[in-house]
């Protein structure tokens, strides 16, 4: 894997620490990314998104969705109620605990979460503040003064 030195980026920029940290995490991450549980990220409108996570076997009470410092954390922990009394001949359904993290962009907030049919749907919306939205600046037009006959002076040669 390639190693990139991001030190010049830190020295030459101010206020881009999050981007540099994100790039640093991506380039130095030699650990394989977790694949459980599978998820989709879809764009539902111009400024709206939905994360759908397959959480088969988990009840809504087993799941937690939190936002901490622009990081969405989805976690699940299955309560071990009858596990001691059960004997499995084959166990192919993974009910293992998980924690999945999603880094949210600036001005993205979670609007809701719903659990249905083994899927956890998390709705997000990007709300751009009025200060950051483009705005049209009106160009003022100056009134041109109409010249009358009394404002006009005849030029005469003086010699």
Report on the structure:
There is one protein chain. The mean pLDDT is about 80. It contains two helices and seven strands. It has helices at about 5-10, 15-30; strands at about 40-45, 50-55, 65-70, 70-75, 100-105, 110-115, 120-125. It has two domains: about 1-35, no CATH class; about 40-130, Immunoglobulin-like, CATH 2.60.40. The chain is elongated. A hairpin with a 2-residue loop joins β3 (about 65-70) and β4. About 10% of the residues lie in helices and about 30% in strands. With about 160 residues, it is mainly beta. Strands 1-2-7-6 form a four-stranded antiparallel sheet, with no helix packed on it. Strands 3-4-5 form a three-stranded antiparallel sheet, with no helix packed on it. The N and C termini lie far apart (about 90 Å).
